Amino acid sequence: MNPLDLYAKIEPLIGFYEQYEILYQTYLRYINALHIGSVLDVGCGNGKFLKHLLDREIDAEGIDRSASMVQRANEIGVRASCKELEDFEAERFECVTAVADVLNYLPQKELAAFFHSIHRVLKPKGYFVCDVNTLYGFEAVAEGVMRFEDETRFLCIEANYADKELLTHIAFFEKEGELYRKQNGQIRQYFHPLGELKKQEGFRLERTESLKLFGESPDKTLLIYQKR
Ligand SMILES: C[S@@+](CC[C@H](N)C(=O)[O-])C[C@H]1O[C@@H](n2cnc3c(N)ncnc32)[C@H](O)[C@@H]1O
Questions:
Q1: CB neighbours of 100 closer than 8 A, spacing ≥ 6?
Q2: From the CA of 99, how far away is ligand 1's center (Å)?
Q3: In which domain, by residue range, is 158 found?
Q4: Do 82 and 165 sit in the same domain of this protein?
Q5: Single pTM value for the model
Q6: Three-state SS at 121
Q7: pLDDT tens figures, 135-187
Q8: How close is the Cα of 79 to the center of ligand 1, in Å?
Q9: Ligand 1 and 114: CB distance under 6 A
């Protein structure tokens, strides 16, 4: 199974919905202030952020590499697909978003190409708004062991951070009749220092905002880029 689809399966059990809602409201504050009319949400997940955009009558669509996530997004009435950035026409959107550490799924060496693809789909002077986990977010918030269970499911997550990488092991047990079926997966996330993020070709980093969603120190940084 695609590890992102396994993540889609366990996401309702982890349920960071309250914290993510705070994050969505922060994005919406900027999107309103910038008078954005069209948005492509990369890594749209379950589509909840797209729904907020739709409710504000913004022309919005999402893409995600997990087909299960895309299905869930479509079920709540938003437009989502498994397209890649390359599948869109150039200069199509006023804004691209990547909400809830989507950028941390990309290794350092893929970052420049990702920014290049976003640059292509943005209108002149368009915005790219995203957030990344801080070092504190990785070391103090994400690292460790978590377990969840209900009557039919059991989940154990173990995350270890070293050398700018967070490796998350997932063991998920789902009841099938009298027995449990086990699914294993691994997700790798990468820490991107602010210095690296500042020097993305074709963009000016206009503004950053530190966010405390989970801890007592900032665990995420919101970044607002404008296409040069
Ligand atoms: C932590 S979730 C956040 C989902 C959503 N933005 C939200 O706010 O709930 C990260 C999502 O990014 C997706 N993803 C990771 N890398 C991606 C990529 N390169 N392109 C598209 N989607 C990606 C994953 O499948 C997952 O749904």
A1: 20, 23, 43, 45, 131
A2: 8
A3: 137-190
A4: no
A5: 0.97
A6: helix
A7: 999 999 999 999 999 999 999 999 999 999 999 999 999 999 999 999 999 99
A8: 15
A9: no
Helices then strands, counting H and E runs in the chain, come out as 7, 11
Cα gap 2→102, rounded to integer Å: 16
Is residue 26 within 8 Å of residue 209, measured between CB atoms? yes
Q: Residue 106 gets which letter from DSSP?
A: S
Which CATH number is 163's domain given?
A: 2.20.25.110
* Distance separating alpha carbons of residues 39 and 222, to the nearest angstrom: 17
Q: Are residues 182 and 197 in the same domain?
A: no
> Within this chain, do residues 169 and 86 fall inside the same structural domain, yes or no?
no
Shared domain check, 216 and 183:
no
- Our count of domains for the chain comes to 2
Query: How is the chain split among helix, strand and coil, in percent rounded to 5?
Result: 35, 40, 25
Calpha distance 195→203 (Å, rounded): 14
pLDDT at 215: 87
Q: Which residue has the tokens 């910038």?
A: 34
* Mutation pick for ligand 1 pocket among 65, 128, 213 (CB with most ligand atoms within 8 Å): 65
CATH assignment of the domain containing 223: 3.40.50.150
Q: Report the separation in Å between the CA atom of 43 and the middle of ligand 1, taken as the mean of its atom positions.
A: 3
